[in-house]
Amino acid sequence: MAGIERQALPQTASTDELVEAHRGRVEARCGDGAVPRPMYSIGELWEMQHRLQELKNAAKARLGFVDHEQIAAVMAQTSAGDSFEQARKDEEFAAELIRLRQQNFSDRSAAS
Prior knowledge:
The chain is mainly α. It has helices spanning about 15-30, 40-65, 70-75, 85-110.
């Protein structure tokens, strides 16, 4: 996603390995002209986490991901029954999500 760099480390990575990997990325980015943003409190950490989530949400929105309200609206139209009926409804739900996503893309194209 634009503006977000992701590092994948093994689940077994130690805290020292995580810190080392982070510092390596910070140093590399500083070489590219970026300036690190130090955090001195848990409040600043949470603010950063919220900014990161906003970046992720904006990137997903640009891709046309379906939002939670659309999912809830489709789910409200279905009720759980036997497993065969539920499987049929799950297929309908997936088809509706695809339709909404395609509509979202065409709406964005028309607006451009």
